[in-house]
Design a protein that fits this description.
Layout: H1 10-69, H2 73-86, H3 91-103, H4 107-120, H5 125-137, H6 141-152, H7 160-177, H8 181-193, H9 199-211, H10 215-228, H11 233-245, H12 249-262, H13 267-282, H14 291-311, H15 328-335, H16 341-346, H17 349-364, E1 374-375, E2 382-383, H18 388-399
Antiparallel strand pairs: 1-2
Amino acid sequence: MLETQQDKPAVARRWDLRLYIRQQPVMLALLAVLAVICFAGVSGLSRVYHAQRAALGNRWFSRGVADLNARHFESAVTESRAALLYSPDNYDYQLNLAEALIGLKRTGEAYSYLVNLWDQQPENGQVNLELARIGAQRGQTGQALRYYHNAIYAVWPGDQEEKRRDTRLELIEYLLSIHAQAQGQAELIALEENLGDDPSQQQRVGDLFLRAHDYEHALGAYHITLKSDPHHEAALAGAGLAAFQLGRYPLAELYLQEAVAGNPDDTQSADLLKTTEGVLQMDPFRRQLSVAHRDEIVVQTFATAGERLKSCGIRASAATEPGAKPTLADSWAKLKPKISEEYLRRDPDLVEQAMDLVFSIERQTSTTQTGPSQTSPQTGTTCGTPSGADLALLLIAKLHEGN
């Protein structure tokens, strides 16, 4: 017969109890170790899973960045969306997608992402720059300017000064594109203060100053470029144009001569040089000019003004009504018999009188900036755009205005 627990002696039962009590901590320890092993295994599997997802997301993101840089915007959008499947809240992935959407001109979708990103990091330079570009595309000037300025003073990875300079240059290009010349000039002056003597950067800034019609600063920027590279063709041409616009024709001639010598295909500089030489040759009020040479120039320019009247169809009237004001042609015909080198030597005051009439003719027959030709207020005839000697005389007239 099997012995039951009750049949065991009391001593034996106490022994079994002690054995059980001794074994319980060991069993608990074993269970704890097993639990730790299972937890570590689950954690490890979880880490492997998340690492695999992160690796896949990063792989798609890298492809998206490469396609974005290559301007393959459609592929970049697909790849950026794939990356976001593995990491929906990743800031860089969302920014890359927004930039790709902008490349496809899907600015509405891009704007939604960018505004959300801006709320998270309002100091992010790239996000501010993209929002500025969207504002510019939409014609929202105030918004564009606000975000451009945010981007200029924002946080940028890598070389912050270079990013800020490039952003300000983009802002200046935008301002000039909307004809905000005064604001463009102010931004250019702020940029120039921190630009240094880099020849290529100064040359670019000089070009922008030209577009902003700030010829004095343009000439200064080109001068810095030419100090480092005296034969810089673009800087020579720009300096010649700036000096020309400032009415500094001797200086313009020097720059333009070098520009054309260095680049014979520069037709713009060649045409400008021809006009500059005409101004210097046809100005009778130049210093150190002999009286004989001055009188010769006056006779020549007076004849040129007469030809201008003829080309415009402006003729002297056969008779004038009582009280009617003489036309330019009438004034020219009346003065013509006295305009000879002999008369001018006898009466030097005729020089001023003749040139005043020449300047009046060239001013009144010149075209406005609104079209290729204009109607003469005196005759109703049409005058073409002045060129050659007529253009030179018009510039000389502007040079001596108020004298």
